[in-house]
Amino acid sequence: MDANSPDINLSSLINMTGNETLLKLPPSSLVRSVLIPIIYFLVCALGLSGNTLVIYVVLRYAKMKTVTNIYILNLAIADVLFMLGLPFLATQNAISYWPFGSFWCRLVMTVDGINQFTSIFCLTVMSMDRYLAVVHPIKSTKWRRPRVAKLISTTVWTFSFLVVLPVIIFADVQENFQTCNINWPEPISIWSAAFIIYTSVLGFFGPLLVICLCYLLIVIKVKSSGIRVGSTRRRRSERKVTRMVVIIVVVFVLCWLPFYILNIVNLIFILPEESALVGIYFFVVILSYANSCANPILYGFLSDNFKQSFQKVLCLWKGNGIEDGDPTEHRHEKSSRVQEAMLPQRSIEFNGHMQTSKV
């Protein structure tokens, strides 16, 4: 497809290709000018509301400030910023040109790119954290702390910014089409192909390899020697957190893999201009954005703490036993006085390594 096509943004296939025969839609296309913007706005609304809720509960409740949840917090921030660019892209699709000027074009493209990479990098770090928590629960205690997690998260954002420097440099409003795009220098086809390889390796397949390796090592270690360290409650908590992270990664891969596969196919072959292919193209792009809507839903279904915190914020939880500092405290309300006397001892255990593993 033409690298100067009017439908270009970092999360579309068009800006990564140099082919001039793929998916050129007329400006009057009903799908592009009406249906796609509507879907973009719906995805934006769902993604913003869900991830804003995640950010709020993690910052609001003390017990939610665990190592895993710090990475989830950064993933939610990335998803929120990712969603903020959708109204701009929806407007461009609807009116077939970019009305916001050069500064906003570069800003939207940059934020879009940074958070696209930040998402996969956060999932990679979460998978590495799962490996340390499950396979090396004692040795990794000094590293699996909220302060370290915040430092690592800062590094992830910085690295993501460096990765998208080509977008920061070359993104601008195109003179020919008046659309926001990446304006590659000559030879355009070489730059476009290099960018596809660059983003695919650093932004998906490379991190995915690390993620798969982490869980492969977890399986091998557990099956070969067994994990006996720690209490039964802590091991159960680790399994639940690991399962949640695995499901989040799998959903991410399912949403983004078609996008990168179609990019690579388009790099190798000149795809025909057919209506079916146009539909596949739009489905793939929307699916990649829709991933940001899926994460808050997954947290609610897979984590009791997230579920209870969501219910409290949304005024769906009628009990009055959940305190601001501990969304799970209502479980102890029905305890006998003898059990209440034992709570301080349990708190000591709970505030240790096990707390950093509970979501």
From TrEMBL:
Keyword Kinase listed: no
InterPro entries tied to this protein: GPCR_Rhodpsn, GPCR_Rhodpsn_7TM, Somatstn_rcpt, Somatstn_rcpt_5
GO biological process terms, semicolon-separated: cellular response to glucocorticoid stimulus; regulation of insulin secretion
PROSITE patterns: G_PROTEIN_RECEP_F1_1, G_PROTEIN_RECEP_F1_2
Subcellular location: Cell membrane
SMART domains found in the cross-reference section: 7TM_GPCR_Srsx
G-protein coupled receptors family 1 profile domain: residues covered: 50-299
Annotated protein name in UniProt: G-protein coupled receptors family 1 profile domain-containing protein
Gene source species: Sphenodon punctatus
